[in-house]
Amino acid sequence: MDMNKILNAALLTALTLSLTLLLGSCNCGVDIPDAPPAITLDHTEVTVPCGGTAQVIVTEGSGDYSVVLPQVTTATAVTHGDTIILHGKADGQVSGVVRDNRSGQTAQLKVSVTSAQQLLRLSQYDAGLPIGSYVTLSVLSGSGDYTAEVADEAIASAKIVPSGIRIVGLKEGNTTVSVKDNATGAVGKCEITVSMRAFKLDLPELPLTFPYGESRIIGILSGNGTYGAKSAEPAIASVEYKSGQFVITGIKAGTTTVTLTDDISGKSYEVQVVITLKPLLLDFQNGLVEVLQGYDTTLRIISGNGAYELTADESLFTAELRDDLIILTPKSNGDGKLIIKDTKSGETKELTVRVRDLIHSGRVNLSSVTVRVGETVKIEVLNANDWDYYEWSVKDGSLASLYTRGGWGEPFSCTVKGIKPGKTIIKLSTSSWGGGRVIEEIPVTVTE
Which of 73, 88, 114 is the C-terminal boundary of a domain? Predict the structure, then answer.
């Protein structure tokens, strides 16, 4: 072998090895491309409305994609950058592949095509409701993003609420509420029938009769929310709708008719109203009035018509009218008659008036009491034994108050406290089970 050839071969081998080692230790400015990213989608399963579209976004990839759907009669796909637009052709399902054209990587995509009626399902497709009430439609399936429209907004209104679609009846008639799923374009419709409520009142016994100055109420049991009221003779009785009921007020004596109307349905009731004069009533219900010598007795007229005449046995007592008060002043002992007449209504009250002296039996330590407002005086029963029992009372409790003690070995007493200036009587009686006989009447004068 030629020695020169051997040397040349050895030199070439050494140079090749050195160059390999040098290139292996650095890139010498040559870029080595990274591995392509894996392709990922925001949805791997998607529902497309038949005749509509849906989108899938490629969240990781090179930006150059293609989609293969083996059944183009069910759905088709086109790409725009990172967006894949799917078109629904016919109900069904198809599984396809999204391919990254640069890296060759793929992702699986399942497409379901469904008709719009199946995409949006309502709880009901027809509903009836009275005027003023509402019904709520529930969405059984859908995206959660809806709008609602009413074909005739004069008949009903519709509003999206957390529980569904609230429909309110406004006036009698038929209309359609359309609910649209904004994500899929699906539309569901509900046929609405709005009807009148029956107009019913809580009517009392008729004719409605009561005195002037008073009011009577007629409640509404059922109706359509808007009401009117009119009186044929407002000078006799007024009427108004207030807080869900009709209020009728007597103005003066007479007869009239009030008309109560449901403005929505037009149905009305005519109610006959008879306004009477006020009855004559006194605060004293017994037929016998006692008037004690030295003290006036006052009766109060608690109901009447404002004009009165008094007839009294003036040999025994006088009667004076002061507004609604009748003041009886004693003259001589005995029984007489007092007649009170309401001159407007003609109604009368007749009472027996007994004029007598105060009862004094000497059973108490004081025969009369004078006490200042806010101060007290003590009255004691004399010579009582352990088996006695007594009761105290004051004629006018607005002038003086009583605090009583006694019995079972403790002396019987009454502490009188002045409340306001005036004159009244304290009575001491035997116990009620002993007949309740008055044995002492003590005049009380309260001063400033």
Answer: 114
What backbone phi and psi angles, to 5 degrees, belong to 221? -85, -35
Please state the rounded mean pLDDT for residues 162-184.
92
Q: Characterise 220 by phi-psi region: left (phi > 0), alpha (psi -120 to 50), beta (else).
A: beta
* pLDDT at site 299: 95
Contacts 24+ apart (CB under 8 A), 326-329: 326/298, 326/299, 326/300, 326/301, 327/296, 327/297, 327/298, 328/289, 328/291, 328/296, 328/297, 328/298, 328/299, 328/353, 329/291, 329/296
Residues 213-239 pLDDT 10s:
999 999 999 998 889 999 999 999 999
* 16 has pLDDT over 70: no
Residue 22 placed within a domain: no
Dist CA 40 CA 98 (whole Å) = 9
* Residue 44: other Cβ atoms inside 10 A: 12
Continuous segment of H or E residues that includes residue 396? none
Yes or no: say if 152 and 160 are a contact pair by the CB < 8 Å rule. no
Do 349 and 382 reside in the same domain of the chain? no
Specify the amino acid at residue 324.
Answer: D
CATH of residue 169: 2.60.40.1080
Taking alpha carbons only, the member of 365, 394, 424 closest to residue 403 is 394
CA 220 – CA 226 distance, rounded (Å): 11
Do 380 and 340 fall within a single domain?
no
Q: Cβ atoms within 10 A of the Cβ of 75, count?
A: 25
* Residue 179 token pair: 């609910």
Residue whose C-alpha is closest to residue 422's, from 397, 389, 403: 397
Same domain, 175 and 226: no
- Chain-centre distance of CA 53, in angstroms? 49
Q: Say if 35 falls within a structural domain.
A: no
In a domain, 174, yes or no: yes
Spatial neighbors of 134 by CB under 8 A, at least 6 apart, are: 166, 167, 168, 169
The number of folded domains in the chain is 5
Domain region containing 179: 119-195
Structure confidence by residue, pLDDT tens digits, 101-113:
998 899 999 988 8
**Domain limit, last residue, from 306, 333, 356:** 356
What is the rounded CA–CA span in Å between residue 222 and residue 200?
5
> What does R_g of the chain's alpha carbons equal in angstroms?
52
Identify whether residues 49 and 100 lie together within a single domain.
Answer: yes
For residues 387 and 380, the model is more confident at 380
Q: Is residue 93 part of a domain?
A: yes
